Predict the structure.
Amino acid sequence: MSGSPSREDMLIQKIREQFPGLVKEARVVRRSRPEIVVAPEKIVEVALFLRDQLGFDHANGVSGVDYNREARFEVVYHTSSLENKETRDLVLAVKENLPRNTPKAVSLVPVWPGVENFERETFEMFGITFDGHPRLEKLFLTDNWDGPPPLRKEVRFPTD
Amino acid sequence: MAVPEKPAPVAAAEAAAMSESGAQTLTVSVGPQHSGSGHMRLIIELDGDIIVNVAPDPGYVHRGIEKICEVRNIIKSIPVIERPAIIDSSNLNHAYIKAIEELQGVEPPPRGKYLRSLLNEMNRIMSHLYWLSIYGVFVGHTTMFMWPLGDRELFIDLAEKLTGARITHSYIVPGGVRRDLPQGFAEEAVKRTLYFEKRLDEYEKIFFNNPLFSSRAKGVGVLSRREAVALGCTGPTLRGSGVDADLRKDEPYAAYPELDFDVPTRKEGDSFSRSIVRMDEMRESCKLIRQILKQIPAGPIRRRAPIVVPRGEAYSRVESARGECSFYMVGEGGDKPYRVRYITGSYRNMAAIPVLLKGGHMADMPTAWWSVDYWPVEADR
Amino acid sequence: MSAQKTSQQEDDPLAMLADSINVWVGKLSDIVKRIVDTGPVRSVVNWGRIYSLWPVNITTACCSAEFGAASGARHDLERFGVLPLGSLRQSDLIVVEGTITKKMAKRLRMIYDQMAIPRYVIAMGDCAISGGLFHDSYSIVNGAHEFLPVDVYVPGCPPRPEALEQAIIMLQEKIRKSKVYAQG
């Protein structure tokens, strides 16, 4: 739609104004689904701003993605607002890219305590470490799997 | 046959830790073989009778579904996606298919949307009834075990007439649904929901407004509004703490934009309020089922949709019985997704368990724990 | 039969008497076992076992939903005597309901080892038979028979409660025809 900017565009604008140069890419994937790509060293700052100034009071989830052909891991935090009823449907994806051979991220548990289990799972499934996580150890894979982190693309199924 | 080796015992130092007050605490393992735990283990640290700390130990039903989805085509993944909350399978199925349709740019026809909501509401009732019956096992109330399972069969029959299966429907497919309403279904369903609403009044009298249960559940396992929001809780666990968030209203999908219903919410945040929220939700679901059957438009139930996951990303979510079930899907063309991230309501609510059990008595643990309706299979995936 | 006697025992008449009593008591227990394992006594013992098969309170995976439904009002497993009651030490049946992860397999084996004899195993669901839908996953054991001696297999994903009832009946038939001391 031409004319007035959408609320997703305005949101991205606000974040860019606060962090010029730190937000590497930003786009609106589809309605209610904006996303920003942030430098890993600055993700805590951006997350605190999102929580305290823009009302993103919780995280919906944390996902790791293995882009092995591009030699990177991507960690995606999905966040939205529960207290602002009108924007409950908007889910912002905050992404960071990590080099595949040394995937070191900073934990966002101090910002959104609910991500604790999700970051643990991302650690055991991909081998991505989260600096500052209160308990970075296996969550589901204890006694289940001893091999390399199973969601990495090089771990293949017999039927694959 | 190969006998698996025993798991390592808990080290003695871990077992006798010191609590904050300096007294010695005792670490107790509850589950997975326990009449009050389900298929998961809670490692509980006790100071006398008071719970000091809880560490959930999930993974007993971890089947690697996210990885399985990367090697199966999207239709073959549907039964795999449904299995985590088998009692609420069509809601999980719906979220998965919605993500694929977003990537494909396909929308089901209106009749297909209504049929999706119909099965979703029936599953919500079936799931809450199963929760209630297992609650009967946990609190030692045999009638609370038997009656909900009996009434649940009413809806299982309807689901079987509609989809061909009791609980694993695999009904929602890209582009619509698999089958249309059989003859006589609408009258039968309306009769059953009216009967069931009368039963719900009886449940309220016998199970909830009954000191046997209410004295055990009121004030037990309190989760404040602030904690519930910060931890990212969802579903009745969140609505029992005063936040009226429900995706059917906040981000409506399928037939919900055209349907009229309330979102039950309670403020107290204890086990009793979470239970009442679920009971009221069952009432709302009965109303919704009747509305859907009255308003359902004529027309096709399915649009042609290819068995392909186009390049792109999608984040789709649905209000399942336990809360927000969300899929983050990355596609690269082909019939298999590149990445499927699957987060269920129970997995999100896992964060609340240590918080709401802390400070309570050990004897209150089953009541508080099951009021969250943490379904271990759904959390482990 | 008689062990090598020490020089002490050769001379001590009391020891010789104790020895022969031991042998006589041993023979008596053999005789009792033989009596119990014939005809009417065996039927009575097996009748008791058949109509009070108490399963352990353990759910393995999603088939537990149909086990729960089978114990419920319409299907009512209790009319077969199946009642999950109390500790696993007083249970005689373990129903492996659904997919077995490696983590759960260790615990299932521990539970089976702690159950008192006689103990029976029902493998419920395709996953407990061969791994089912999840057969190629990294954390799965492909079937209960990999680490437990299974008595009855119930196919289905999940099996209907009626299938589970038939499994109980088949197990009852199996017990009815078997010896009392088949498991020791």
Summary: The helical segments of chain A are 7-18, 43-52, 116-126. Chain A has a mean pLDDT of 90. The longest strand of chain A covers residues 58-67.
